[in-house]
């Protein structure tokens, strides 16, 4: 089955199963074996953090970083893979505890900007112009700890610094309403669009939407995608699923909400997204799954492609007649029967 889409995932999606309340439950998988999963299951690209490319990046010189990045590029070329995105990992360093880009500490803010600039340069070497910015710790546990007016201005200043440093980089902001912070700044794709408009080059600032992040905000991921697509600003998707508004569960795509998955693909199909960007699965194996655990990735791809077939075979003319008659009960039954294979 070939849907015409291109697929990617990140090294972190093959995970040891650790959570805040328990130990690892699976052995660590070597990078070479992760690459084998990519190729064996028909994935085209890889998502990379800066320190996936260059481990311990803050301790290395500019020449060391360049040499290691070129070696990583050669490794990708040898495997027939490309880098979909690069992203600065700004949340696992002591300088990022309070969110480096909105920190009260000027030195921490400068560190975050410098690391993002360096990540843009890595994109050149890896052959991608797309930098994803997940504002993971850009928020607070206690709102009185930061001046929110200053924080949003700091974010605009940070985006401008990256854009001015690299004249071709595109920045895709990945919004999330909570976790790891209690409340995060720029929690939805609407906030992303507003922030983009205030930068020195709004044409180079867009969004990446993750299914679970929209659901955690109490929103419909399909509508969020449609909003960004209508503005030509959806430059990436992280498809997964979520069982309620708890924490970021990274379930296999559409495993908990099949109809929600169907509607996300309807939007992507209507917009011709397969010619715009790649489909990334930001999923992890269930914590209780014994290792080695990689099936969640091809499973998500398989579900996606089956739902593409369901979307493409949906009788839109019959649906349009239901809509014209305002017979929404008939339309709902039609959708459900189609998903259940009864039509």
Give the low-confidence spans.
none
What is the architecture of the largest domain at the second tier of CATH?
Answer: Alpha-Beta Barrel
How would you sum up the global shape? globular
What is the class of the largest domain in the CATH system? Alpha Beta
Number of domains: 2
- Sheet/helix structural class: alpha/beta
Q: Looking across the biggest beta sheet, what order are the strands in?
A: 3-2-1-10-9-8-6-4
Write out the CATH superfamily name of the largest domain: Divalent-metal-dependent TIM barrel enzymes
Name the beta content range.
5-15%
Output the radius of gyration. Answer: 20 Å
How many helices? The count is 12
Helix content: 40-55%
CATH topology type of the largest domain: TIM Barrel
Question: What is the helix/strand order?
Answer: EHEHHEHEEHEEHEHHEHEHHH
Q: What is the CA–CA distance across the termini?
A: 20 Å
Overall average pLDDT = 96
Q: Would you mind describing this structure in some detail?
A:
This protein folds into 2 domains: 7-312, Divalent-metal-dependent TIM barrel enzymes (TIM Barrel, Alpha-Beta Barrel); 314-343, no CATH class. The chain starts with 6 loop residues before the first strand and ends with a helix. The chain has an 8-stranded parallel sheet. A two-stranded antiparallel ribbon has the order 5-7. By secondary structure, the protein is of the alpha/beta class. The chain contains 12 helices and 10 strands. The longest helix has 21 residues, at 106-126. The protein is 43% helix and 13% strand.
